[in-house]
Amino acid sequence: MVLAAGYDIAFVNLGIEIQRIVNGFALPVFGGFEIKYYGLIIGIGVLAGMFVAERNAKAAGMGGDIIYDFGIYAVIFSVLGARIYYVIFSWDMYKDDLVQVFNIRNGGLAIYGAVIAAVTTLFVFCRLKKVPALKLGDCCIPGLILGQAIGRWGNFVNCEVFGGYTDNLFAMQIRRSLADPAMVSQELLDHLVVKDGVEYIQVHPTFLYESVWDLCVFVILMWVFYKSLPSGSGLKGAGRKGLYRKKFDGEIMCLYFILYGIGRFVIEGIRVDQLMLFSTGIAVSQLLSAVMVIAAAGILVWRRREKKNV
């Protein structure tokens, strides 16, 4: 692709310009084969998440090997779940070219599909291995949110997952030719920016908002996890009184569903590429987030009260 002069992406109010992100879409390797940076970033997120989960499992006395046993299945089924979820709610994009259903190198993975598949895999795996699922889940869930935070930068290199027009501090301009035309709303066209003959859309960088939110959730979950370990575990801060500590196995998972769900509900409302619940006009991720937050909060309150009364 031959591009006109100018940058590809800029955070205009921060004075940051990226000249050629289009040249970074793929990493060339032997034989002309290319590894998409999207997939590479997702892979880094998976490895980082497994590293955190392994350390947590060791700290909780479960041993690190179980993470790798579970991780193999979790990664496979999470990718499948993420793709199936995306295809179901984007069926019009694939119904006339079914081969593209199997092409995930250019994106098209929905995180909620991955989460649903991962949690389902967790319970099936633990049932077969006779391992406490909620305890293992509390070890793994901080790694999941870290992987999500990293994985959002795959959306950045693909010039996707952005919101409507804004001129706030983090406003991001994207060369119009790099964005999927289906994601360029009329509002963005009404605020089209032209510089040196190049057209740009100016958007909310919702991928960045979610990545930062996910990192904050990761810090909170790790803090609660390690403060909740027995005081005899030998880890600094473990068992300290006067701070929030989990009362039951599965509480870290509940906190994840509540905190991530709140952030996702808000951020999803800004995005222009929402997956809709078929013809209802309802953003499926917002609906799922709301249900998830309410259900997890209900379980959290009920279980903590139950433990308090024991």
Give the gist of this structure.
This protein is α+β, with helices and mostly antiparallel strands and 310 residues long.
Structural write-up:
It is globular and about 65 Å long. Helix 1 packs antiparallel against helix 5 (133-157), helix 5 packs parallel to helix 8 and helix 7 (206-227) packs antiparallel against helix 8 (251-268). It is built from nine helices and seven strands, in the order ββββαααααβαββααα. By secondary structure, it is an alpha+beta fold. A hairpin with a 5-residue loop joins strand 3 and strand 4. Strands 2-1-5-7-6 form a five-stranded antiparallel β-sheet, with no helix packed on it. Strands 3-4 form a two-stranded antiparallel sheet.
Topology:
Blueprint: E1 9-11, E2 16-18, E3 26-28, E4 34-36, H1 37-59, H2 65-88, H3 91-94, H4 111-129, H5 133-157, E5 172-175, H6 186-190, E6 193-195, E7 198-203, H7 206-227, H8 251-268, H9 284-308
Antiparallel strand pairs: 1-2, 1-5, 3-4, 5-7, 6-7
Helix pairs in contact: 1-2, 1-5, 2-4, 4-5, 5-7, 5-8, 7-8, 8-9
Features:
310 residues; alpha+beta; five-stranded antiparallel beta sheet; two-stranded antiparallel ribbon; 9 helices; globular
